């Protein structure tokens, strides 16, 4: 199939970046790199510097292009954002509601604070990526995505009807319906894990921190809606792993971090889902065509090989001095194996 891209990934920084980046780069030609570092990537200079650190860490033979994102805050400057977009540094901006997830303390407290930014993005055709959960502590955690649609996304859509946006890592029936019922400027990414686990996975015989991510996995009927959307062939749904590595000690803790590290076997995981749905022929559109078309970027010309050959996922993956990370599908056997980029002759 055509070489895929990952439209949502956390590559981290420093030693963790060096340890994880090639897991993404060996499969994906491009990736939208999330800006939730500490401190977050809020300026053109910071994005250029982070891009250089990624390029220094990646194996250049893999032919990987990181696409950089501007993290929005209450103080984001429309001129800085437009300059970054014009200079080809920023591909999009990311809206994290303040305190929604890992390293989001600097996120946006109220969308009224960024209305000038959103108006500028709408005018210049720059996409907005949304972490779609409200942070109101009185809202049940399993309802935060659905309530975000009513309270925030609908308002953004009404006020900025020409704004291109991606509802990131959707997890609910309501999000699928919202995207399907919106015009062609609204799309969504779907992770490998939300296609495979429901909320029971977090409590399977005991508390399971490696199944915990944000947005949190929901009931089975939501998972089934995500699977239908992913394999539907609709150009509004595309691949975004949300691979989010945390070392074991940070996950297996009294207050464990949110995030599932799925990069090492990402395309194998999606392939398993598409095959189970009888839709392996639609994997290429989801993984390699819908995303670039939405972003107005060329399709990758390279091809990759997936073989029908079982692969055993290790129980941990070493990340050097920092320790180890438990990957998604740890200890499982997957039926499709990624065999690398096809030779061009
Ligand atoms: C992400 C992380 O760890 O940076 N965690 C996660 O559970 N997905 C943040 C995010 O995207 O919410
Ligand atoms: Zn994420």
Protein architecture, described:
With 345 residues, the chain is α/β, with parallel strands linked by helices. It has one domain: Metal-dependent hydrolases (TIM Barrel, Alpha-Beta Barrel), CATH 3.20.20.140. 32% of the residues lie in helices and 15% in strands. The protein is built from ten helices and 14 strands. Strands 1-2-3-4-5-6-7-8 form an eight-stranded parallel beta sheet. α5 links the parallel β5 and β6. The two termini are 15 Å apart. The mean pLDDT is 97. The structure holds N-carbamoyl-L-aspartate and zinc ion (ZN). The site of N-carbamoyl-L-aspartate has 11 residues, from loops.
Fold blueprint:
Layout: E1 6-9, H1 14-25, E2 30-33, H2 44-57, E3 65-71, H3 78-86, E4 90-95, H4 115-124, E5 128-130, H5 144-159, E6 165-167, H6 173-181, E7 186-190, H7 220-231, E8 237-239, H8 248-251, H9 266-276, H10 283-295, E9 304-307, E10 311-312, E11 317-318, E12 324-325, E13 333-334, E14 337-341
Annotation field: number of helices: 10
Main sheet record = 8 strands, parallel
Query: Hetero groups bound?
Result: N-carbamoyl-L-aspartate, zinc ion
In the sheet with the most strands, the strands line up as 1-2-3-4-5-6-7-8
SSE succession: EHEHEHEHEHEHEHEHHHEEEEEE
Fraction in helix: 25-40%
Count structural domains. 1
Instruction: Give the C-level CATH assignment.
Output: Alpha Beta
Count of DSSP E strands? Answer: 14
The CATH superfamily label reads Metal-dependent hydrolases
The coarse overall form would be: globular
Mean pLDDT: 97
CATH architecture: Alpha-Beta Barrel
Q: Which runs of at least 5 residues are low in confidence (pLDDT < 50)?
A: none
Query: Would you tell me which CATH topology applies?
Result: TIM Barrel
N-end to C-end Cα span:
15 Å
Beta content comes to 15-25%
The radius of gyration is 19 Å
The structural class is alpha/beta
């Amino acid at each position: 199939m055509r070489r895929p891209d990952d439209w949502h990934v956390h590559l981290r920084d420093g030693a963790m970046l060096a340890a994880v980046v090639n897991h993404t780069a060996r499969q994906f030609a491009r990736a939208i790199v999330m800006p939730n570092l500490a401190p977050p990537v809020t300026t053109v200079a910071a994005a250029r510097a982070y891009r250089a650190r990624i390029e220094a860490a990646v194996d250049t033979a893999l032919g990987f292009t990181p696409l950089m994102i501007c993290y929005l805050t209450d103080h984001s400057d429309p001129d800085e954002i437009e300059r970054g977009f014009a200079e080809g540094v920023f591909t999009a901006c990311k809206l994290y509601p303040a305190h929604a997830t890992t390293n989001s303390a600097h996120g946006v407290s109220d969308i009224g604070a960024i209305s000038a930014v959103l108006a500028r993005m709408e005018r210049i055709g720059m996409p907005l990526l949304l972490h779609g959960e409200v942070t109101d502590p009185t809202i049940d955690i399993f309802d935060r995505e659905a309530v975000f649609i009513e309270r925030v996304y609908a308002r953004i859509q009404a006020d900025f009807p020409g704004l291109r946006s991606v509802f990131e890592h959707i997890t609910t029936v309501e999000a699928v319906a919202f995207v399907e019922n919106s015009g062609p400027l609204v799309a969504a990414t779907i992770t490998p894990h939300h296609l495979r686990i429901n909320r029971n996975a977090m409590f399977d015989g005991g508390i399971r921190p490696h199944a915990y991510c944000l947005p949190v996995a929901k009931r089975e009927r939501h998972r089934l809606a995500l699977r239908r959307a992913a394999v539907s062939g609709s150009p509004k749904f595309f691949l975004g792993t949300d691979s989010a590595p945390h070392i074991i000690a940070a996950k297996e803790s009294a207050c464990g971090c949110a995030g599932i590290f799925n990069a090492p076997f990402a395309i194998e995981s999606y392939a398993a889902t598409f095959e189970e749905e009888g839709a392996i022929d639609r994997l290429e559109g989801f993984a390699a065509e819908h995303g670039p078309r939405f972003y107005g970027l060329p399709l990758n010309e390279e091809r990759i090989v997936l073989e029908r050959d079982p692969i055993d996922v290790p129980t941990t993956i070493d990340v050097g001095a920092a320790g180890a990370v438990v990957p998604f599908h740890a200890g499982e056997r997957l039926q499709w194996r990624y065999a690398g980029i096809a030779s061009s002759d």
